[in-house]
What we know:
The protein is mainly alpha-helical.
Amino acid sequence: MTDPSIVAGLLACGYVVFLMVATHGAYPLSPDTLHNAVLARNLLEGHGYVIQIVQYHVGSFGSVWHVPEMHGLLQPFVLAGLFGLFGVADALVRVPGFLWLGLTGFLTFRLGRRLFGWPAGLLACAVVLGSPYLFLWAWIGTDDVGFACVVVAVVDALDRALRERRGSRFALAGMLSGLALAQKATGIILPVVLLPCLGLLRDVPWKLRLRWATYLVMPVLGVFCLYLARNWFAHGGLSFRWGAIDWFYKSRGLEPYFAIYDTIPSLWAVLQSLGWTEVSRIVTGQLGQFFSDAVLRPFEHLAGVLTYPGIIFPLGIVAIALHSRRHAGFAASSLLALASTVVLVCTIWHYELRFFVHLVPLACVGFAGIDTWVEPWTSRKGPLRYLRAVVLIGLAMAAAIPISGLNVPAVIDPASPGVRPCGDLHEWVGANTGPDDRFLALDPWSLTWETGRPAISVPSGGADAVATILRRYEVDWLVVSPSVPRPGDLAVVQQMVKEFQPAMQMAFDGNACDLYRVDRSAGLSR
């Protein structure tokens, strides 16, 4: 009989190859993804851990080239390695996500097989690989799927450690937790996930449990110190400056994110300015949104029954709780991961459904484990045994349906500004401007990725705010273009061009995307 591990491995590898072929030529990349791609290219070219994009205006940087202070640490180095092997290319930016997702499918198989047997493992693998939601974030190229992959490995390692009671197993779980934190800052939840699980070992002396707790926590603390060091080199402080501004965003929308803050507001001052009634409203609203997305909305679309969004997530979470008697370590760590993520995202950070993507493979394993409940009734030869096999095969095939009908280029309208935005303008910039020329743009991420030129985001706050940033960073050019991240601001920038005449002189007329030469000495103050 063929080893199920080989089947799962072939499924995962074939899936990765299929996605690379199916998505060839599809461009859409998010600002987060392009940030990591630009940083990776700078690492490869010897510039160091710096980026030439000023995304937001919390305080000011001494130079447009600066140490970045956002996103995880690991993804840019993975991308830099790929760029070094195969050259810098758009297509490579999403490859780590596909590789992470293929590996996630294989790891869920191994976890499911160890806990519930190989049929459940293969089912979990198939459902993970067939999830269009997981595919979406792998395709866009964010770091979320990589984080999900490492979290599955953490839960597996911790469950093994709790069963075998070996220090090396706990050390492995700790090192994987540090890797997860390096991939994405959400990994800060992992000590909350890992340490309470040691309470399951009540018969183990407390000194030994304390030693194992040290193994679990020290790698996470070490990586967290790297984040603090990055903050220090970025802005001369240890704080994560976006924590306070994020509350303005949750209360007033996107505009405060791009406002100018000459001094960094403290979190406490921001919360007081909003008022505790408003803070409670925001937190309650985010909790309600998660409950709606994860529990209620899946039942609206029965076609997604085996995918996420789909009922597999709530069913999987319930199944995990019901597995707690036989698989206490897996159940405890999975449910703690759910609870701590809800607290972190819905009460501290801002809500996006992708921040919960690491819970999906765990739910798939729990869902697949339901198969063990009917196994005693189908263990003997007979109709029920064959019916069980048919059901399992049917579930696996149904999980693959969303991927089999995939038409990636049609997902986003080719006429959308998010697909190769301002390509003609970027070509003109590359041929007619100097490498140190600085650009003000609504979408600085795409401009810098396409041209390598330093770019600063257009601030909110009107013409006076724009004039301030133009002078602060000695901007040479202004790009007026549609923007996926800030679609409503195009008309505002167009109006600013009229107000700044004659300081703005048209240099490139690309219809949808225009370029103006900036004369900082003429008409920038009103």
